[in-house]
Amino acid sequence: MKRSLILIVYLLGTASIQAQVIGKPFPSMEAETVEDKVVTLPDATRGKYTLLGLAYSKKSEDELNTWFQPVFEKFIQQNKGLFEGFGYDVNVFFVPMFTGVNAAATGTAKRKALKNVDPQLLPYILFYKGDLKPYKDALDFEKKDIPYFFVLDKEGKIIYATSGKFSTAKLNAVEDVIE
Fold first, then answer.
1. By residue range, what is the domain housing residue 22?
2. Is residue 152's pLDDT more than 70?
3. Number of structural domains the chain divides into
4. Cβ distance 21 to 5 under 8 Å?
5. CB 94 within 8 A of CB 61
6. For residues 100 and 124, what is the distance between their CA atoms, to the nearest angstrom?
7. DSSP labels, 21-32
8. Span 82-97, pLDDT tens digits
9. Which of 4, 61, 121, 127 has the most other CB atoms within 10 Å of its CB?
């Protein structure tokens, strides 16, 4: 009974995020690679499905990191090597967001990423520095301590949203909307 109640509360929370943003265009966001190249989302991703993970606190960034390896293995690594062409044609970006006083830490975060993150993952990490309010309002960020994930269609419209730490069920749901 307790497990069922927890599942219902979780699903209602996820449904709330989805109901607020599904069908809306993803708001324009300028972010940078570790090499300071500017990438404008969703413009840079048009023509392909896109999975975006956003986090705007240290705790949410830690949970965002739980998605790196499984997403890399499912959507990126699978497209390389022996079975090239049989995987997914999808953009993937993880975006730590540095806002307010934390915006000054963006350079430090980039240097830490260069030093500590697997070089294969670096092209999929973008750093946002700026105002949080437009994204918080448009994307229904309710809790700062969890990451938010959005699947965009080929035109940049949100077709799926979820939040929180990685789970196989969430990854399967992402895969279902991309297929």
1. 2-178
2. yes
3. 1
4. no
5. no
6. 24
7. HTTSBPPPEEEE
8. 444 457 889 999 999 9
9. 127
